[in-house]
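If I may wish for something, please sit down with the protein I am sending here and say whether tokens and residues agree:
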Amino acid sequence: MPQRNDRSRSTPTTSPKNNSWFRMQAGHQSDADIYIYDEIGFWGVTAKQFISDLNALGDITHINLHINSPGGDVFEGIAIFNALKTHGASITVYVDGVAASMASVIAMVGNPVIMPENTFMMIHKPFGFTGGDAEDMRTYADLLDKVEEVLLPAYAQKTGKTTDEIAAMLADETWMSGAECLAHGFADQVTPAVKAMACIQSKRTEEFKKMPESIR
């Protein structure tokens, strides 16, 4: 991984809520480090700010993307995924703690994806909340199904699994360690466990049914 240096320029998000949890830094060798250590969406890392900061990095050829996130808004995440996928720079993804939910989709832009032994990735079916009558509920359920259909190819392309295989894993809220991600094709390299794995401090984790106790 290219190292940052004293002459690197920093392009932090301007959102006061993000503080240091979302950071982009570009060095003098056409590489950049990006850290997503927050939820995805208006309460954390927004697509608008992410893309603005990404464009501000200028002509870079390689991105080191570090992720420790419980996920968040699916449409914000899709916009971030697409911005990275079409950027043109090669991307190495490092899962520094947890890449859960929409954050795991964003991780799929990496080639390679690198995970220490004691980090996790989680994939699950899209979910949300709405109100209204029975017809409103059916319409919302159809929307969730369509969202899942949009997400499936990102996992399938990375892993080589069929969309049916991925759909079954989503339905089961599948949590995977670094080694399990490697075995299933979600990661390309596993490294020794870091001394202290970053934890997720987010109410979003209350929505997860099978989250390992070791990272709560």
